[in-house]
């Protein structure tokens, strides 16, 4: 009761003052995505490069300047007088080559020499610690770095579920999440946690995943874009499923670069092709000849064209409407029945919109 009453008095006093909201720590394409003193998740299926995504965020935080990171649009905010220490806690990579190489990459991409040890970068591995003892070890490490560094701490936990004996153990899951929340609320700490998804779904794994998703301010999903037949493309979609003070759905696309062993911004053409390939019906390869056939004898009203294409391709009128709107907006070149290059155009005829295949270069 004394603690509750003390907290009440603090809230009463704070509620009378002007409230200054925290400045976001990290932006994605100028949109705020990570805020200080929050819990944040990076989730995805096995093999989706979640750890490399976490490394991109880590690089932003430890960089000497205020960079854009690896050209994928991540950047740290530019408020003066702020400093951060990034503590990377790994649980599964080996200490002989995998984790040391990841540390090297983060340092070098942040502008440091390979043999340089910046004061703003700390790291450990829990891999040698038995699972039954990891929660205690993590708590001891958090206390250690909180006492060692005076500035704001950003803790990366890669992988969160490996910090306890079982991700389905309700008691341990709650103990871990409660511990993270205590550090967030009273110790000036931000957590960025990597976690696996359940196979075939978007839910983070186990009881721990459910608790973490509920408490998280930002949830970033990392997944390969798939074709209609289920096969993965080379494009990785990074979608913010949840974002504090921001609408969900913000997304961008990256690809794995073999030369640098890292992630780079995906080529716009590759993204367009991956997007088109996951459409099971009315794909570009199906739509182009269908348009040539239906518009062979001149313009058609939008409603009639949608009706005919829907019947021919076995798709809904809404799907057809979206497809032809995209083609008209992008002016993609399409062949007519004579094989001439055309673009899909639309024009008003009274209250009606009519579509045509207009030869390239024609008025």
Automatic annotation (TrEMBL):
Top-level taxonomic group: Bacteria
Gene3D superfamilies with a match to the protein in the record: P-loop containing nucleotide triphosphate hydrolases (3.40.50.300)
Name of the molecule in the record: AAA family ATPase
